[in-house]
Amino acid sequence: MSDSKSRRSWIADHIAGLPRSGIRDFFELVMSMDDVISLGVGEPDFDTPWGIREATIHALEKGRTSYTSNLGLLQAREAICDYCTPHFGIQYNPKTECIVTVGVSEALDLALRAILNPGDEVVYHEPCYVSYSPSIRMCHATPVAVTTKQADNFALDPEALAAAITPRTKAILLNFPNNPTGANLSPEQKQRIAEIAIERDVLVLTDEIYSELTYGPISPSIASLPGMKERTILLHGFSKAFAMTGYRIGYACGPQVLIEAMMKIHQYSMLCASIMGQDAAIEACRNGRPAMEHMRFEYEQRRNVIVNRLNKMGLTCAKPEGAFYAYPSIASTGLDSAEFAKRLLMEEKVAVVPGSAFSSDGASYIRCAYATRIEVIEEAMDRMAAFIGRL
Amino acid sequence: MEKRREQILQVLRQNARLSAEQIAERLDLDVTFVEQVIAESEASQIIRGYYALIHDKGFKQPQVRALIEVHVQPERDVGFDRIARNISRFDEVSDVILVSGGYDLLLTVTGESLQDVADFVASKLATMQGVQSTRTMFMLRKYKEAGFKLEEDDVHERLQVTP
User: Fold this and answer.
1) Quick check: B46 pLDDT over 90?
2) Which strands form A169-174's sheet, in the order they lie side by side?
3) Distance between CA atoms of B159 and A353, rounded to whole angstroms?
4) Is residue B130 predicted with pLDDT exceeding 70?
5) Between chains, do B162 and A41 touch, taking CB under 8 Å as contact?
6) Angle (nearest 5°) at CA B28 between B23 and B34
7) Which residues of chain B are within 8 Å of residue A353 when distances are taken between CB atoms?
8) How much is the pTM?
């Protein structure tokens, strides 16, 4: 009798080597407890505005339940490109320079898969969204992190970026406004990064999913700067600004040749984004602005409250310029972020995400999402202050 | 500063019970500035009053309310103003709005009972000089008022931690 148990490893080496998401264990712990106030949620607490939901229902009523063109409904691409012109300061051709994807996450994955050969390098900045480094590795490429610093309000220092670029660098990956820091780039920093990209002949992938949620002046995308359209893939979607996370609708805009390459992967894997989601996206582009501005004003008030309270309890926190995250330093408590988060959860039932989930350098920070009602934020801050008072 | 002033009013309209300190924190302003704007707005009657939005469930005998469309004969020089002001003087009348469309004024009238409201319309309102006709619609159930839903929506629970 032979042993039926295989001695082979079924998991591909590059997948086996990926770390588990840093917040997975913490998530399990939070889920096991009742009455937790969570500042750990990276999605809007608002329901999708009714006009957008109603457009989805209308789509279903009309029987719009089929596949769409691989690139997405032409009408959706037209609405998206019309939206991008005033919002990002750049014009794209809906027929050739835009693809609708299943969330911005798929758009990023397509972009990376379309451009990377094994061994290529992508320079990105940390702290950042948890998927960037794994997504690059899944393309058999090498992620190269540049750490952004609290002293710079977590904006990317263009010269540190330049220093990380090697002849193997294929692209730089930007995410501003940033998750988890809320940092943004100034027009001057964007200009300098654009110059570096052109000088070193690398692509720029810019994930601007939080671009509407900017509380100061909104500056045009790096994609709109001279010489940049031809080397930039702009990644965006509807999840954050329009509270449409569950719809999973994102998009990429960029040079035809790159969109075409991304389309090939999308065509053979995802086929297309859901048609009713695309119908909802059209409504969001055309008529979603007032609801979005209302939500932005709410987020801005919450930001002011949370930043004020964090600083008052001695956790240094720069005022985030965008997104819905505060990223205070907890260095003064002497705890590392995982321990801080765990004890805060156990002792005060408040959930925050340890900075170590977003950066190898994040042990002195926690992420507090303020996509939660202001009264809840106030209660969470009272509990956190009590916790810190006892340390 | 004009934008800031409007933001203070906007926040107050949403929740009039917020203190000047809370408003200042939310809008990142000086408390004294917020206090000054509120005081000025009250003095200049930009802020006309504060009231609580209370569900009928709070009372054993909720008030009866009716929407009333009123056809009015406009008057030389003053148009609808004189009669609208006179209608406003009745305590029974809580809203008076001049509207476009098939009639001229839309009122909300309240009373202790259906009979109360009917009597008011028949004896006070319809008999006013200039009032040509009225149409009374009793309110049966209110679903939303001043931007606040009056019924509970199903709550969809989000995940507690997401990246």
Assistant:
1) yes
2) A98-101, A250-253, A232-237, A203-207, A169-174, A121-126, A142-147
3) 13
4) yes
5) yes
6) 45
7) 161, 163
8) 0.92
